[in-house]
Amino acid sequence: MASNDIRTFLRQFSAVKFYKYKGWSNSRLRQDAEDDLRQYLQKLSASDDPLVKQKSTRLLGRFERMTNSKHAERYWNQMMINEERELTKNSLFILEQRRSQHKNVIESNIHSEHIAMSQKTTNEFISEIRSPRTMLPGDESPTTVYQDEIPDIFADDEKKEREVFTENESVAEGESKEESEDEGIYAAGSSTWKEVEEVFRRMNDSQKWKLSTGKVVEDALFEYARRCKSEHLSQSFIVDPDDTSYIAHGVFTEGELTEIEETDTKSLPDIPIDLMKYMNSFRKSSIEELRSQLSMVQDWEGANFRREYHFDHDWIKNSVHNL
Predict the structure, then answer these.
(1) For bias kind Acidic residues, which ranges apply (predicted)?
(2) pLDDT class of 128 with cuts at 50, 70, 90
(3) Which pLDDT does position 162 carry in this prediction?
(4) CB 186 within 8 A of CB 195
(5) What 8-state DSSP symbol labels residue 256?
(6) Exposed, middle or buried, 31 (CB in 10 Å: 0-12/13-18/19+)?
(7) Residue 286 has pLDDT above 60, yes or no
(8) Are 309 and 298 in contact (CB under 8 A)?
(9) pLDDT tens across 40-88, in order?
(10) CB 6 within 8 Å of CB 157
């Protein structure tokens, strides 16, 4: 494949991931990005090259399953909540500092910061989908979900691209003491790992989840957890069906992960209409309009604020404030 084809695929795939990660599940931009990638894969599947046709058809099928997966939507929503929680912590700290100094909370260079952060986020997504899954989850970022390797049809050109863009993920010889301690938290014999072993020991075998293949989910997760160098969901006996490392390391087959994903699925609760309207009020076309919206005092603020009723509204405003 030509280098331009590689760049086109990576650009369109990273766009889909970017919009999903930011929680724009209902946005037109997200839908346009998915449509562009879908059309490009359909074009490749009509190629005269049988290998290209086979690989692109398989990739197209996987893409359709990913975009329609309820589990994926739940994951991205949880990612958005986690990100906003961190933003809220930071924003509250900044607000407290600036109140004591009687300074304006809004940064004068918010526009340049927003552009820089957007570019950084996009570059991180591109690096993720270009990095091969050769390491245990303990060596990987816990915030990634779609870590698919680039198909073989892109292998030659991708190898050259990776030499430029992929950072060295091996542990440096002079790594900090803090990083070394983090890796040892779940090491065999540690107090944390002993807690995991104790939880597993107290499990009732008759109540464990047995798949149609005969594999016991809790047993497989425990065996995999002992191989991880640092924290991973398997150590909490939580399985993410979209985590491809399970297949890469022989923990579960693709069919077993599908069975896990489709068993007893539950839909997410609907967002209240007033909360959705408040989020949509920040869909502005300029920084000036966004600042103006942020400066407006809402009915629920001030003396009317009740944490049990208005926490989500306050969280949203602080998150936007901290962009």
Answers:
(1) 170-184
(2) low
(3) 54
(4) no
(5) H
(6) middle
(7) yes
(8) no
(9) 778 877 877 777 777 778 777 777 776 666 666 666 666 667 777 777 7
(10) yes
Domain residue ranges in the chain:
1-167, 177-262, 273-321
Length of the chain: 323
Q: What is the DSSP string of 8-70?
A: HHHHHHHHHHHHHHTT-TT-HHHHHHHHHHHHHHHHHHT-SSHHHHHHHHHHHHHHHHHHT-H
Q: What is the pTM of this model?
A: 0.34
Contact 221, 237 (CB under 8 A): yes
* Distances 18 to 27, 63, 173, 208 between C-alpha atoms, Å: 12, 15, 33, 37
C-beta atoms surrounding 181 within 10 Å:
9
Mean pLDDT to the nearest integer, 95-113: 55
CA 234 to chain CA mean position, Å: 17
Tokens of 11: 């650009």
Instruction: Classify 203 as helix, strand or coil.
Output: coil
Q: Which residues contact 94 (CB under 8 A, 6 or more apart)?
A: 105, 322
Q: Which SS3 state, helix, strand or coil, does residue 174 take?
A: coil
Residue-wise pLDDT for 247-265, tens only, equals: 999 999 999 999 998 898 8
Q: How far apart are CA 189 and CA 174, in angstroms?
A: 25
